[in-house]
């Protein structure tokens, strides 16, 4: 069986080589002269020569090429459709036009690599079908978007189409006569570029992933046509747009910000921090990286004098490393802000990002290990480069360690910290608002083990491209639930959102890093503060993942210190995943379910049970993925513990029915202290449960002032572990000395653990 597979693969490669040789012929007047500059965007003439010369000897490239050829050959056999647009995402016309731009790009690349006219003819025929249709198209009939397209319900998707189609046009440019090119440019490409730019300045002239796609679409087709006017628009935006300040998009995000640079350069300047973090979050960073990098590659090939990949200290190349670090052990992006779970670095956008970053970024061998997992490459110069590196066995493992990524144009608007210790990963979000895709969740966190969620971030409320669910677009519950503060693992005051849930306020503020330290192998720690989410209230939250020989696995410490000018109701939820095993809470289950409130996300939470702690610690244990977890928190008898579940007031079942544990406290100044442990295991085969109980006998706040907070963890073997945080002085060189329970503690730096 294996022999047959090897023979079949060799036959495919032989066929490819045969096609290359047999079709490498001189054609008629459509053939370009030696002075031609096409292709020049993602493929270059020299690159094509190199690829052709090595076909059959570069396994991962050959495999990708064979799969692409098989796909496009089948589509050519079937023929194509260019339907009149009428649907939202997931609908027939939407998906057909979306499929078409992918097919155009792939067929164009196949024409260059295999030199077979059938692929160029396929691209030509489809482009002329669009050129015939486009001048007759009105604005798309679906009215939901703030910037409606013509082929699609929003200009964003029209821009997707042009980014990919420009590459196809570049590949067959010299296959076409000048008369044919004139028709395509007059009837299709120039009107198309003008519509998504001058026709929709509210879409094109802003800083957002939408406008990035628009800028790049216009820029890519400008490079193919050598149109300097369009290229100037793409790089620096429209000089006149007549937009009014205060205009918003469908997500409530501001369209125009006074003094903000626009165009491609503006979208490079504003959203990216110097560390390569993109303020909308990893889900949209992944989406935007394709246009950012594909245009950068094209500019590098056509306009190398711009040195675009060196811009802002090489921020686009840094962004690829940042994105990979923003994934869990399985390669899935952490769902910060609006983010769909399950999106990973296996997506096509990250295949091209990894290839481009490797080719232009010094050929980092760690990127080869990611490409090897992706098991495919882009069929261009960069994909060929990475395929050679893999063939030569140059790859090294991409080591994801603890990292702190700054946010904001200058890296001064908070950030995202990822603590990693063995199989445990903690994601701490103390970032800026994150444009219109941001959530009101300052100082929130999520926790993972081996890539599995332990304490989850909900992500977005949307079924992307599933037509039955709101046309595949954002659901109303994204605003009424997913963006709300109570939907996250952070503190809510008096049932109100951070910044009153208003983008205009939230976009002006950000948390501040107190300290971050990953220098010690056994303690990874981060601390940040927020003073503007609730006026008159200061919040300081510190997380540590600690590896200690007296614990089976690294455990997580969560210290949340609050200082306010008045008494408040504090709600601190933990959105755990799994089945409750045990708790020392004497709770009462409700026979009739009521929602926890009427607004700000509380209307979507069922109150299933509640009770008051009878001791100074609440212990809550659950099981998930055959692992046991325990949350131990300091409490007092006036606290209320609420066992809740998402899903109230959700008639269309748009929300997941996930559980939560909420610690409610009425106080003015207070400190929440919790420890989360992973321990034991369960086998469904042997039915054997191991180490199912928490290793903590007691947890106590033993010192708490404005300057210092200290907790003591007493294990079941009667060993004391103390963690002290410096709440004010974050200097790594500062010497500290305090007395706790008649014992003096001295240390240097922001914290002490022993």
> Helical amount among residues, as a percent range?
25-40%
User: What's the pLDDT, averaged over the residues?
Assistant: 94
The helix tally amounts to 18
Largest sheet: 8 strands, antiparallel
Task: Please mark out the parts with pLDDT under 50 across 5 or more consecutive residues, or reply none.
Answer: 1-35
Read across the widest sheet, the strand sequence of neighbours is: 7-8-9-10-19-16-15-12
* DSSP strand content: 15-25%
Counted beta strands: 27
Describe how the helices and strands are arranged.
Layout: H1 2-22, H2 45-54, H3 59-78, H4 92-114, H5 117-133, H6 155-172, H7 178-196, H8 201-204, H9 209-225, H10 228-236, H11 263-269, H12 282-302, H13 311-325, H14 348-360, H15 365-374, H16 381-391, E1 403-406, E2 415-421, E3 424-430, E4 444-449, E5 452-455, H17 477-482, E6 492-493, H18 503-506, E7 512-520, E8 523-530, E9 537-546, E10 555-564, E11 568-574, E12 579-583, E13 588-589, E14 605-611, E15 617-624, E16 627-634, E17 640-646, E18 659-667, E19 670-679, E20 681-682, E21 689-690, E22 696-704, E23 708-715, E24 720-726, E25 735-740, E26 743-748, E27 751-753
Antiparallel strand pairs: 1-2, 2-3, 3-4, 4-5, 6-11, 7-8, 8-9, 9-10, 10-19, 11-18, 12-15, 13-14, 14-17, 15-16, 16-19, 17-18, 20-21, 22-23, 23-24, 24-27, 25-26
Helix pairs in contact: 3-4, 4-5, 4-6, 5-6, 5-7, 6-7, 6-9, 7-9, 9-10, 9-12, 10-11, 12-13, 12-14, 14-15, 14-16
